[in-house]
Write a structure and sequence with these properties.
This protein is mainly alpha-helical. 65% of the residues lie in helices and 5% in strands. It has two domains: 167 residues, no CATH class; 321 residues, Neurolysin, domain 3 (Orthogonal Bundle). The strands form two sheets. The protein has a three-stranded mixed sheet with strand order 3-5-4. It has a two-stranded antiparallel ribbon with strand order 1-2. It is globular and about 65 Å long. It binds zinc ion.
């Protein structure tokens, strides 16, 4: 097999894998069977293929180096995936079918988070949390085995460990990034404690002392503003937005799944099985602000995928190093639904209420940022020292230090997305603030209805996953990991 043949088969493999994952996630299939798909393509994930491409990487010309590297790391990830697929299938199928008791009521595990988001009674939220914890704790031995197995396959392939492997495949120096994270924590400490103390009294009616992290799930839903975000307007508002930007043609490539199936995972998601021609935007509306947030966030990913230039090789259409860039595009659109100018134009919200929503949403954004700063600090602490046995302790400590909330150590594995995805998100937070600054300066506050802004986004999307986020901001004249735009915005709105 030569490199082009491998690239073609990889495209087919990823199509099958994403489709399988999506069908289970949206509740159209009960059992995840990714192991079967790995079996079908096992020729791709042999030691032999890996070695060949590994050697080829060393002699390839500079021009083809990036393409070869990406194919190599996709093969490595498939090689690891193939070995742990049966266990991973078991875990995902377990969560998709898990149920728990809440008093006399039997509820599915996936229903718990949306219930917490809407539950106005403090004590009932804590009961829901205990119910979720029972399901999570039961899966922990399998989740731990999965992490250990993954790490050992990675080491067998010659990487020093988990952190080393991901810093090579994602091209990020995580030790350096950790320093940036510390700086963001320090620069937002004061504003965080001040606003959190205020919200705790106003919304939770408690002093901010050792509160269970479950209440973050309630705070983040902004349920006091649900009335301003009618469920039946979610899709029409998103469609109008694409139309205003002159991007409505891209919806032809996007399949929107907003059906409410009982077994559908409520966490919204976007799949790119075949960019640009087949992209899926999946949401499960429950009413309120979170539906709009999900539709516009996943919509950001979906428009990106649907506008990828057909003329790029598959590698630069789909095989990204990390997801930081597409997450930044998603964050920019997601934030729009709290913008008072957008709210008054699209949902008839008064300037007074719009500003209140912006304040509360910016607080939530900072809360989630602090949570992810804690998550990354924990993962970095654990993997840089190869200290998995202290994982639960490190998790609870770092999350408490960053947010002030109490996190149950048992969530240490279920609350971790593999491959330092927390860092992808944090990079996106930094980069989205920079790109937003550029877009507002160039196209004005009403950029969301400016065809020129739409054209600009289309030109960024067309490059697919060729660039990393930091390359994009550099081209716009910003410094990679320059956190000032991010930090200043919190001070501007909340201070
Ligand atoms: Zn996303």
């Amino acid at each position: 097999m030569n490199i082009r043949e491998i690239e073609n088969i990889l495209a087919k493999f990823l199509y099958d894998l994403e489709t399988e994952d999506r069908l289970v996630r949206v509740g159209l299939k009960d059992k995840l069977e990714s192991a079967k798909i790995y079996k079908k393509y096992e020729r791709l994930f042999s030691q032999n293929t890996l070695e060949k491409i590994g050697n080829f990487r060393k002699e390839v010309s500079r021009k083809d180096k990036e393409l070869t590297d990406r194919i190599y790391f996709t093969l490595v990830s498939g090689f690891v995936g193939q070995r742990v697929a049966p266990l991973e299938d078991l875990i995902k199928t377990y969560f998709a079918n898990a149920t728990t008791r809440l008093g006399s009521e039997k509820i599915s595990y996936f229903e718990i988070a949306p219930k917490i988001a809407k539950e106005t009674i403090f004590d009932k939220r804590e009961k829901l949390d205990s119910a979720a914890l029972a399901v999570v704790t039961k899966a922990n031995p399998k989740q731990l085995k999965l992490l250990i197995d993954e790490t050992s396959v990675i080491k067998d392939l010659g990487f020093k460990g988990y952190l080393h492997y991901f810093s090579e495949s994602k091209k990020v120096n995580y030790d350096q990034f950790y320093k940036v994270i510390k700086k963001i924590l320090k620069l937002t400490d004061k504003i965080w404690l001040k606003t959190m103390g205020r919200v705790s009294q106003e919304v939770l009616r408690k002093p901010f002392e050792n509160l269970n992290a479950v209440h973050m799930g309630y705070l983040r839903s902004l349920s006091m503003y649900d009335n301003f975000y009618p469920k039946e307007k979610v899709i029409t508002a998103f469609t109008k937005f694409t139309n205003d930007l002159g991007l409505v043609d891209l919806l032809n490539n996007i399949k929107i799944d907003d059906a409410n199936r009982p077994k559908k995972n409520p966490r919204a998601v976007c799949y790119w099985p075949k960019p640009p021609s087949e992209v899926h935007l999946v949401i499960k509306p429950i009413g309120g602000e979170q539906d709009f947030e999900a539709a516009f966030h996943e919509g950001g990913h979906a428009l990106h995928g649907a506008a990828v230039s057909e003329s790029l090789p598959f590698t630069f259409r789909a095989l990204s190093r990390s997801n930081a860039l597409t997450e930044a595009y998603a964050f920019i659109f997601e934030d729009l639904i709290f913008d008072p100018v957008w709210l008054s134009t699209n949902l008839n919200v008064s300037a007074f209420t719009g500003n209140k929503i912006l304040w509360q949403a910016t607080f939530v954004n900072l809360m989630l940022l602090r949570r992810y700063l804690g998550k990354f600090s924990y993962e970095h602490g654990m993997f840089s020292k190869d200290d998995i046995k202290n994982g639960p302790k490190l998790y609870a400590k770092n999350l408490k230090d960053a947010t002030g909330f109490v996190f149950n150590p048992s969530n240490w594995l279920s609350d971790m997305d593999s491959g330092f995805y927390s860092a992808d998100y944090l990079r996106a937070w930094i980069g989205a603030a920079q790109i937003k600054d550029y877009v507002v300066k160039k196209f004005g506050k009403r950029w969301f209805e400016n065809i020129k802004a739409g054209e600009y986004f289309r030109s960024l999307y067309a490059r697919g996953v060729t660039d990393e986020l930091e390359d994009v901001v550099k081209r716009l004249g910003y410094g990679p990991w320059d956190i000032s735009y991010l930090v200043e915005n919190y001070k501007k709105v909340l201070g």
